[in-house]
Amino acid sequence: xxxxxxxxxxxxxxxxxxxxxxxxxxxxxxxxxxxxxxxxxxxxxxxxxxxxxxxxxxxxxxxxxxxxxxxxxxxxxxxxxxxxxxxxxxxxxxxxxxxxxxxxxxxxxxxxxxxxxxxxxxxxxxxxxxxxxxxxxxxxxxxxxxxxxxxxxxxxxxxxxxxxxxxxxxxxxxxxxxxxxxxxxxxxxxxxxxxxxxxxxxxxxxxxxxxxxxxxxxxxxxxxxxxxxxxxxxxxxxxxxxxxxxxxxxxxxxxxxxxxxxxxxxxxxxxxxxxxxxxxxxxxxxxxxxxxxxxxxxxxxxxxxxxxxxxxxxxxxxxxxxxxxxxxxxxxxxxxxxxxxxxxxxxxxxxxxxxxxxxxxxxxxxxxxxxxxxxxxxxxxxxxxxxxxxxxxxxxxxxxxxxxxxxxxxxxxxxxxxxxxxxxxxxxxxxxxxxxxxxxxxxxxxxxxxxxxxx
Amino acid sequence: xxxxxxxxxxxxxxxxxxxxxxxxxxxxxxxxxxxxxxxxxxxxxxxxxxxxxxxxxxxxxxxxxxxxxxxxxxxxxxxxxxxxxxxxxxxxxxxxxxxxxxxxxxxxxxxxxxxxxxxxxxxxxxxxxxxxxxxxxxxxxxxxxxxxxxxxxxxxxxxxxxxxxxxxxxxxxxxxxxxxxxxxxxxxxxxxxxxxxxxxxxxxxxxxxxxxxxxxxxxxxxxxxxxxxxxxxxxxxxxxxxxxxxxxxxxxxxxxxxxxxxxxxxxxxxxxxxxxxxxxxxxxxxxxxxxxxxxxxxxxxxxxxxxxxxxxxxxxxxxxxxxxxxxxxxxxxxxxxxxxxxxxxxxxxxxxxxxxxxxxxxx
Lengths: 455, 363
Prior knowledge:
The structure holds two protein chains of two kinds. Chain A is α/β, with parallel strands linked by helices. Helices cover 30% and strands 22% of the residues of chain A. Chain A is built from 13 helices and 14 strands. An eight-stranded mixed beta sheet of chain A has the order 8-9-10-3-11-12-14-13, with helices on both faces. Chain A is globular and about 90 Å long. By secondary structure, chain B is of the alpha/beta class. In chain B, the strands form two sheets. Chain B has an eight-stranded mixed beta sheet with strand order 6-7-8-3-9-10-12-11, with helices on both faces. A four-stranded antiparallel beta sheet of chain B has the order 2-1-4-5. In chain B, strand 1 and strand 2 (63-78) form a beta hairpin.
């Protein structure tokens, strides 16, 4: 094709910068240094005191402070999460909204410490999580809660094997053990204590204490997150077997079936024995939720739990999640791009754009008095069921290239309300009400309240 | 074995005879209807369209299990209008769209396009009509050839259908690109260099190059972000007003369909359960499935707590649909009759069709 470039040569060059091999090698060398240091930090052996901390607000269950999660690629460092600060209060639902690539999933993956290493790393910041942990004796074993009789005398019970038969010792006498307290699903109870962990500082091995037990995650695509070669029961039991010391297979099975019941599966016994491909999308997502509940977590992270589902099934799953939050007395961190879902579920909303939080507040503040031009645009650009308009509002342009982010406001190019100040540095978070924060120059200055009312 | 069968036949003899009679009666009605001339106002008229896929075959090649992807769907579409097709995944929306364009050979039924019944046309004869009907696919990432440039992608249909002389192809393509909001230096770029929204623009431009009359949009915005979605929807609407397209807009997102359509058809398990004007269908949804579907859409207003009709269970397998009304297994208003007799698809208000036993016949 003999198509000659004309006047657009300059525009083309500025839009995409191609790297030479030499440049790529230099970047890779630099990245390797940082990645090696961070990987070593993750693998280190550390005493517990090193990653214990204190919550700023005792009502919170999770506090993320100035979190930076980077991906070290050969094209450059992608700052997927770039200074994110928010908190999840006990017993509430916090929603994170944003478009794809804004860093909402990377935030949740950072909290779970599941970033794909060595490229993906938590670079700095802290994630404080108030967790329950087993109280341990001098040998490091968890202390059971004994189920004694009224006089405080220990009660002994016979040990049974898999088939319900009593185990016998060499002399033919039944083996006994001291009776332990159990919860309503028949799982053994241990003494617990509350500790505040700083997840960003924990070595990877220590994360096993929290992951799946105290923080659980529901993933977006239920088909790819269930293992196709194991039965549902097998995968559900694993959680109990791993996280409850001394749990037997029967106990695990009983708990799994109870959990399947809890998420509204009609025939839990049958689902327990089936494989993931035999279930429909809604059922699979219910199994994922059951798996998350299995460890009795304090925080459930739901990463786009309904995106792959139909509206009628989505309604079922949202109803289920809302009901469960009360029954397990936990908190939910809900990540989605659907404003409707957020409005229905969340108490607090965090709006993210290009790796940063641009606005956060309670749900009614964000939906009734949105401040940031991006939040306003996002709400106007979504057609709703009761709007009557011919043309949709649209935000022009695209999200900036994540590799070389500008040093001014990331939204400047797409913003309709640009001021002179926007050509300066990135705006700071401004408090407009006790719970409402926004990062925009429009609301800076001395009396942000007045500015807010004008708009 | 044989005696057993014979017994059963004897027992069911009356029912079977009645069923045969009923079937014959229905077939006669269908034949009468088939003979009717097409509506001259309609650009597209679909009558009793069926598309079955064979799932299981015997050794001799006879199909024993059919998947009824589209089962007896009828509607009319005037030139310049937009019809929105909504439904859950697996209800046959996409198959309907493709069958209308004859990308699938229909099993039965008639498709009138500009007064011609194209259902029986051979592929060679269809080729001449391809310039009048185009499709925009759902996934802009997999529907563009990765090895050709945007210019190559857009000029191929122009060359094949000889829309403009060879020397003017490039100018023509650049003009189309400008209409779709693509810069002209994109001409020699490859698809992987673009974001999802830009790729969808390329797909739209490709459909426009042959100047079609009917464009089937198969979930064109569901793979895109909200702010990009609005751009694409506005583009589609602008093109409709300037070039007078007729859209068949397939989507599972009700709010988008409501925004763009003039008429809406709601599908469930291969059948059209309700069809009508946007206004009448949204103010007065007749079918319980439509009502449940509308109430399930999350409202972006935290203070409004909606009265939601939550349907139990999942959509049944289209290979073994329930007898009678296909929706009766999940229907909150199911009656006894629903499990036995398929409700008739009839007009309740002018231009508003539904198939449900809840509304008695007014004969």
